């Protein structure tokens, strides 16, 4: 008899996810070869599709870690299929993140998997489940920036190079924001198992507002400056320059017109 955790349908990759990968691939091909009068439109679709793919990978990592730790319910919930419709609320997880990207180039953490924590024993397992999501963003950022830190971007078209850089920036910002030890975010989930019951009770009311608190803090100029300095430092360590991420955002905002006659080193 097939168990809920091992049922083939619970592990089959969703056609929705495969469609997103296809959009990312086709739009990336269009950016590379300049197959469009407006390259920025292709960059827009490449980045948006890539962002939703990364959201799926983030939530899948949570679910896969939970399955390994003992929560077999994640299979029946569809979390192992990489289907974004299983993780997301259309407004909170897709529309709002795209708006934040347009406004400020920040990867807004989105999506959710509901883990039955009572099935899992051991504080380290709970911490690992929370940490696995941001780790997926960091790994994806490493893959996207591989051409940069492997010094293989010199012959890459500027638009494609910039799109990769901007999508990588979104992964880095999402990972950093998620790792903050604020109730409601993954960083708090990492440390929560190690807190006293009293401390957990005090923090619990703030969980629904954690992300709002973080973005409120980012409006403080000094905090915003430190945050972006950290992001830029990480990206420079991956071989990505600030100019490349800036150009990626400019291409993404295709309705404002595309950068002209740009030369990158």
TrEMBL record:
Keyword annotations: Cell membrane, Hydrolase, Membrane, Metal-binding, Metalloprotease, Protease, Transmembrane, Transmembrane helix, Zinc
GO terms classed as biological process: proteolysis
Location of this chain's protein in the cell: Cell membrane
Keyword Cell membrane: yes
Stored CDD domains: S2P-M50_like_1
Cofactor list: Zn(2+)
GO molecular function (one): peptidase activity
Membrane topology summary: Multi-pass membrane protein
Transmembrane segments: 16-36, 43-61, 90-115, 127-150, 162-182, 203-221
Family designation: Belongs to the peptidase M50B family.
Name of the protein in question: Site-2 protease family protein
Natural source organism: Streptomyces tubbatahanensis
């Amino acid at each position: 008899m097939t168990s809920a955790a091992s049922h083939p349908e619970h592990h089959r990759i969703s056609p929705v996810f495969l469609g997103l990968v296809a959009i990312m691939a086709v739009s990336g091909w269009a950016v590379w070869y300049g197959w469009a009068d407006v390259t920025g439109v292709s960059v827009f679709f490449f980045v948006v599709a890539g962002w939703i793919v990364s959201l799926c990978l983030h939530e899948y990592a949570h679910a896969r870690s939970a399955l390994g730790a003992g929560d077999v319910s994640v299979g029946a919930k569809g979390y192992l299929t990489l289907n974004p419709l299983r993780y997301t609320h259309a407004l909170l997880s897709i529309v709002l993140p795209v708006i934040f990207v347009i406004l400020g180039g920040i990867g807004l953490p989105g999506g959710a998997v509901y883990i039955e924590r009572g099935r899992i024993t051991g504080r380290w397992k709970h911490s690992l489940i929370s940490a696995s999501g941001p780790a997926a963003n960091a790994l994806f950022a490493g893959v996207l920036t591989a051409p940069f830190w492997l010094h293989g971007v010199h012959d890459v078209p500027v638009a494609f190079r910039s799109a990769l850089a901007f999508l990588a920036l979104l992964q880095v910002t999402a990972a950093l924001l998620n790792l903050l030890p604020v109730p409601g975010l993954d960083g708090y989930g990492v440390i929560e198992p190690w807190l006293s019951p009293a401390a957990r009770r005090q923090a619990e009311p703030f969980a629904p507002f954690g992300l709002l608190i973080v973005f409120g803090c980012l409006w403080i100029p000094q905090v915003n400056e430190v945050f972006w300095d950290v992001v830029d430092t990480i990206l420079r360590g991956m071989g990505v320059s600030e100019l490349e991420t800036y150009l990626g955002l400019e291409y993404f905002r295709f309705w404002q017109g595309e950068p002209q006659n740009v030369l990158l080193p």
